[in-house]
Every structure is written in C-alpha cells, then in structure tokens.
Design brief:
5 strands; binds tryptophanyl-5'AMP; 12 helices; 331 residues; Tyrosyl-Transfer RNA Synthetase; two-stranded parallel sheet; Rossmann fold; mainly alpha
Length: 331
Amino acid sequence: MSKQKQKVIFSGAQPTGSLTLGNYIGAIQSWKDLENEFECYYSIVDLHSLTIRHDPKKFRKACLSFLAQYLACGLDPEKNTLFYQSHVKQHTELNWILGCMTYMGELNRMTQFKEKAEKHKDNINAGLYTYPVLQVADILLYQADLVPVGEDQRQHIELTRDVAIRFNNTYGEVFTLPDIYVPKIGAKIMSLQDPESKMSKSDENVNGTIFLLDSDKDIVKKVKRSVTDSENRVAYRDEQPGVKNLLTIYSKLSDYSIEELVEKYASKGYGALKTDLAELLVETIRPIREKHNEYMDNLDYLASIYKKGAEKASIVAERTMTKVRESIGLV
Ligand code: TYM
C-alpha cells in the first residue's frame, strides 16, 4: 500500500537581531509540536530582512546565529528541512510572478507595511511594500497545507490564499491553499513594558523584549520591571493586560493551566508571580543560550545542516516552479 502523502508545513523567521520569547511561544513551540506529524520546511528568511539597512558582518553573524537558535530550541534537523531562503533561488523567481498577480490595493491594506513605514520614514523602499508577495511565494513554493505563525501574520496568510486562488482560477490548479495555524494561547505575546503592544525584536525599549540569548541577569531584571497595574489581584482578563501576559507566558512554559496559575497566585500577589516566572524563564532560556553558543562554535556543522536543507528545499521548489512556468506559458 502506498504511503499517504504527508501534509506540508512552511514557516520562517526574519534574522534581524535575535529570536524573542514572542517568536518562541507564538511560532517555534508550534513548529516543534508539529515536526513529527508533517513534512516541515522551516526557513531563515534572510531576504525579507533586507528591507532594513544593516551592517553586512553583523547580518551574516545573525543569520548563522538564527540557525543555531533554531537547533537550540530543539528543532530536529533530521525531521525538518532547515534552510536559508536566499539559497533557494526559486523564491525570488516566484516572487516576481506572484507580484504580477497581487493588486496594489491588497498591499496598501497590509497593516505590517503601514506600521513599518511609520517606523522607518527615511527608508520606505519598494521591498518593504512588496514584502508580503515574497512571503506568499515562500509558502506556495512548498505547496504548504499549514503555516504555523503568531497572530500578527494572519493578514499575510489570508493574502497568500487570495493570490493562490486567483492564480489557480487564471492558469489552472497549481497551488495548494494553505491554512493558518496559531496557538490557542500565546499567539500574541506582549511587550513587558507596554502590554498593549506586541513583543518585538526591534522594540527600542529592550526591557520590553526577552531575547533567547539574554543573560540570566537580564531576564530576571526584565521580568521584575515588567509593567502590571495597581489592582494587585492576579486575574486573567483584558483589563489587566500586563498580568494577563505574564500568566500566558508562564502557562506556555510550564505544565500549569491559566486557571491553576490564577489560583496558585491569588493570595500571593504580583511579586511572587514575577519571582517564579523569572526563575522559570531563566531555566527555559539558559539551555537554549548554551546550546546556541556550542553550535556557534561549530560552524562546519551548521554549514552541513543548511546545505542539506537547501538541497532538499530546492528539489521541492523546482517541482512547483516547473508547473508554474508551464501553466503560464513560459517557453
Ligand atoms: P517574524 O520574524 O517577525 O516572526 C517569526 C514568527 O514569530 C511570530 N511572532 C510572535 N508570536 C507571538 N507573539 C509575538 N510577540 C510574536 N512576534 C513574532 C510571528 O508571527 C512569526 O510566526 N513575515 C514573517 C516571516 C515570514 C514567514 C514567511 C512566516 C516570511 N515568510 C512564510 C511564515 C511563512 C515575519 O516577519 O516573522
């Protein structure tokens, strides 16, 4: 009996700075959970990072460090295809073709573009604007069934479906329509300094973001200083976004449900919650940081992983591109 075709997953992160606790909870925990059931392609989307000007030496190091962080988070290179987007040339080829299938009206509506344009007023480049098209190409190239991401990527995944439907209706059934996968809780981890906004790699206030490479001391400091409220009542509700965020993080990194945590800390208050959460974070992040450092000392090993990843990804990508080129009539 032939083996049923395994469903496919594609996802990725931009190698800007280093991974945050938001990336870890919103995306990487799901990637790891799904690695046994699906054929998974997890990319370091280095071309997407080029929309912001950077120092090439630091960028190169960040790209390598991201692969080391993926591995340190436990992604198994035997089970998953780990690779750099720029090593698989078909991403940029499909990007152009799908750019011709995407309306400016659609790109104008992208909230991430609006936010980024607001933040980088001196460099609102065309890449920033067409960024979502490259993301659409990333996903469709692998005929992904599922895309595990945080809540902030929802609009980009919806665009991916719209473009795939338009292409299929125009040139024939070429692309699989992907579904979004977001974790039930933790799909949007908030800044520790401003719990109304998302925890982000590029937040100017570094105290709002926990990075997977932060020292123990920094982690404790950031948690202790995190913004809560003056109610001094541990509850999981929208009116107390700071405490809600701490409970979410705690629950995602432990075996406690939110309800159990609320009960555990009801009579203890914010101080105890922060102390225990800081300890839990230190114990979670320290092994990741240490493993990351070991991988960074073994660049040959990293190279063997990303070369193997690019080879495998290229085969699948080329299979899709052959269909795409034929379907649109390129000679
Ligand atoms: P990026 O690099 O900003 O983030 C990587 C992943 O982490 C999730 N995430 C969060 N989840 C919860 N809380 C947060 N505070 C938080 N911050 C980030 C993101 O939702 C994402 O899943 N455009 C994408 C990269 C990309 C991509 C793709 C993703 C390019 N092509 C194709 C999926 C499929 C991005 O900038 O992610």
